[in-house]
Structure formats: C-alpha cells, structure tokens
Amino acid sequence: MIYFVILLAFLADRVSKWWAAAYLAEHGTTRVNSLLTLREAYNRGIAFGLFQGIGPVVGWLTIAVVLGLIIYLARLPKQAWLMRLGLAIFIGGALGNLVDRIVLGEVLDFIET
Asked: Exposure pattern of 60-73 as b/e (b: 16+ CB <10 Å)?
C-alpha cells in the first residue's frame, strides 16, 4: 500500500509540472493570492537554488538517498503510519525531480511564496 502512495506522489509531481509548464508558457507568471505566485524557474542545483550546476552529482546523491529511504521505510513498523506516509510522499517527489534531472538536466520549480 505504501508503495502505491509513492507512485501517486510521483505521478502528482509529473502531472503538476506538466500542467505548470504548459500553463505558465501561455499565461506567464501568475499571482494566485497574496501568499502564492506561480512562476516558471529551473533549478540546476539543490534546494532553494543552492550549488547551481552540480546536477549530475545531485542526481547520483538523489538515487542514494531514495534507496536509503526505501530501506528505512520498509523497516518502519506499520504503527508509524504517519512517518511512513510522509516518507512515501517525499520519495515520490524526489523520484519526480530525478526524472527532471535526467530528462531536462534541471528541475522545474513553479511555486513561489
């Protein structure tokens, strides 16, 4: 069941990025409200745009971390369902970003607060 959550999170990542790329290409930056703006930005580094240009290193690091998290997830007791759920969503998103790094060489970020 938890691996289905990973798949759903991965698919949500892929679909949201596909939608955002198409929407923002047509409409440009969009202010949704005072707290949320949709803006197309590509990240070749790690979180928050740090260490730009080290995409291949981040890709290999992502693979190692995801494998470690999957092993950790498999060893967590079923009673730790909230931790398992959070890890599954995190892993799905990380796999989505990994696909971006492999296919595009960068990750599409589109949520600005």
From this structure: eebeeebeebbeeb
Structure confidence by residue, pLDDT tens digits, 63-73: 999 999 999 99
38 is written with which tokens?
Answer: 């949709």
Q: Which amino acid is at 22?
A: A
SS (H, E, C) 43-82: ECCCHHHCCCCCHHHHHHHHHHHHHHHHHHHHHCCCCCHH
| Termini Cα distance of the chain | 33
What's the pTM?
Answer: 0.88
34-43 pLDDT tens trace: 999 999 999 8
